[in-house]
Amino acid sequence: MISQKMKTLVSNNSTIRAMFEEGKKLSKIYGEENVFDYSIGNPNVEPPENIKSIINEILNEEVPNLVHGYMNNSGYEDVRAEISSFVNKKHSLNLSKDNIIMTCGAAGGLNITLKTLLNPDDEVITFAPFFGEYKNYVENFDGKLIIVPADTSTFEPNLDVLREKITSKTKAIIINTPNNPTGVIYSEQAIKDLSSLLNEKQKELNTSIYLISDEPYREIVYDDATVPCILKYYSNSFIGYSYSKSLSLPGERIGYVVINKDMEDFNDVISSLNVANRILGFVNAPSLFQRVVAKCLDAEVDVNIYKKNRDLLYNHLVELGFTCHKPQGAFYLFPKAPIEDDKKFCEDAKKFNLLLVPGSAFGCPGYVRISYCISYEKIENSLPAFDKLAKLYSLRHCKINN
Amino acid sequence: MISQKMKTLVSNNSTIRAMFEEGKKLSKIYGEENVFDYSIGNPNVEPPENIKSIINEILNEEVPNLVHGYMNNSGYEDVRAEISSFVNKKHSLNLSKDNIIMTCGAAGGLNITLKTLLNPDDEVITFAPFFGEYKNYVENFDGKLIIVPADTSTFEPNLDVLREKITSKTKAIIINTPNNPTGVIYSEQAIKDLSSLLNEKQKELNTSIYLISDEPYREIVYDDATVPCILKYYSNSFIGYSYSKSLSLPGERIGYVVINKDMEDFNDVISSLNVANRILGFVNAPSLFQRVVAKCLDAEVDVNIYKKNRDLLYNHLVELGFTCHKPQGAFYLFPKAPIEDDKKFCEDAKKFNLLLVPGSAFGCPGYVRISYCISYEKIENSLPAFDKLAKLYSLRHCKINN
């Protein structure tokens, strides 16, 4: 008796759940310490230590009805002002509180943005590999997700194919940088070229095409890499941000949307994001944590922990003969499976208690995602399992043969 | 460039915002203490005092990555188990954690429930006067809200008209008890009769009709009134609950949905609510506050504060000659306007710095909503303004004439 749309989604979901259940089953049989779950993007690094004292400070200094009460659907004005100043300083911009809407994480932000933009049958284009939820978010509002296949040589956006896919139905482009699942940061040149192409197409088609950059991993970067800020390159642009990863607070559902100050119909867009926040049932981003993040704008989790994980696992996999792009951000590796059938490869990995996610789930078959936001020790302990997996496929330099 | 649907909503929203802005303007001219804002349902009673120590207890005793981390989309299992035990004790039921899904307030709960149930053009019926957001929630999923006009003699659901309105397209009924805006608690007899009618219609039409009870005011009741629990009377029933009012935490977005254990297709419904929580962008109810509410299940705000407000204002209005049903719950009065045009009456009230909401906003023209969740002192100070308003309409017993 559930809706047709949900029936399909529920049956797809069962596959994911089956995987999760199987992980639990393996843990029961072999012991949790012998199962290597690389399937989930749940940050293992602790939130900044001072989060606790910041929460206490707020509870002690502020009036309970204000801390836990309703505010404007966009969020507390002082919080939005502080975040805009912070973003201004970081990127030499000139935003005000009006450019910031507090949201229930990036997922909430993307949903209110798509609700604002999409008429039924509008098209939204994204680049494989992509976070699978984009399809659901777009279809929530009766839009259609169009996928540009991966350029597996660089994992940068394939603009030649994008050019072909843009039509008068194209309402938005979603990018995700640093990228889940590849860890690639789109280069400044790629962002510039993308922006030129979109500007050209807006003129040619006489439509508005919005660029939405989903950036929950913006702060998780290595080797002094920088993430270009799209607001500087393209007017009709949004950023969806989340503190889930940068502060390790994914359960608290706290983030924001930045709206480019040069956006067309700016006021309508702001009003609509507000109304969407309200009527989709978010009402507002959780109030205490709005105040918390405003007090730790400079705080970050210890990214070096993820970097050490990346280096250990990346080096080992490459040594084993896996082909893998070295990620500059996020906490994922996306190596090529040694066979075409990535699902089969994941099944084989499971024989050694390694839980990986097939690239097909991200629109990029033939690859697998390895989520390394687990403890260093666990990664160390998993290396022999990767050795065995490599041996199964007779990869070169296979350590186990030494 | 925003979507057609949102264009309409944004222009409607401007009316509400205009009202809000006008309130601020009046405050600037006459001073905040001389403006009596009875328009907003933002609880003024403080959250239970121990909320602060409970938060501290959680932060001190539990692992940060668990307190602030991801969990199942339904919420923490232990929290759901504790809530189900609590509900069982209160209503002599036999629920388990599987009957509870933690949500971002009641608004989030209603949205995931409607997403689960509605195919395009499905109809959802509600009884005037009703909370205006229901229309938006239903239309989020391309459903149509059908309104049963108010029975203004009792403000109980008009079942004769409901009978006529139910068709094969009817997917759900939404009730709200204690009611916003009337403060009426639907009687046990009304719930029984409603349930019989729905059971009869399910058989007759060979369809499933779901009953959704929106109960954010369940704990805000006076004079030992009790709110019947629909789970006992009708199998295909949901309760949408929120801690926004019972613990004065509206900004924290914390509540839950209860799913009747005898519901048809129970497992599909649960899976769908889970997926809907995820893909609408809630992902999960805010994590820290899930743990907070589990530790204060017995706590309640001091309802006597609201009761004192109700008595003061209700008695005064009746004495002035207003016709008003004495509310048994929530924190609203819903008197009849002395003229048909409730909007005109609210405009006149504004002349005395009284901000009221026209009943038209709740599908019940000719009435006005007075939200008395403000301080007792403020209500006392506003009484002369009500006197003048009554005088303007030459109501009997008008104190100002004494």
TrEMBL record, chains A, B:
Query: Superkingdom, according to UniProt?
Result: Bacteria
Instruction: Determine if Glycoprotein is one of this entry's keywords.
Output: no
Fetch the NCBIfam families from UniProt: PRK06836.1
CDD domains documented for this protein: AAT_like
Q: Which family is it part of?
A: Belongs to the class-I pyridoxal-phosphate-dependent aminotransferase family.
Q: What is its EC number?
A: 2.6.1.-
The chain positions of domain Aminotransferase class I/classII large read: 35-381
Q: What is this protein called?
A: Aminotransferase
- Parts forming coiled coils: none
Swiss-Prot/TrEMBL keywords: Aminotransferase, Transferase
Q: Which cofactor does it need?
A: pyridoxal 5'-phosphate
Any single Pfam family the record assigns to this protein: Aminotran_1_2
Classification via Gene3D superfamilies: Aspartate Aminotransferase, domain 1, Type I PLP-dependent aspartate aminotransferase-like (Major domain)
| Native source species | Clostridium uliginosum
Q: One GO molecular function term?
A: pyridoxal phosphate binding
Q: Which PANTHER family match?
A: ASPARTATE AMINOTRANSFERASE YHDR-RELATED
Record's keyword annotation contains Transferase: yes
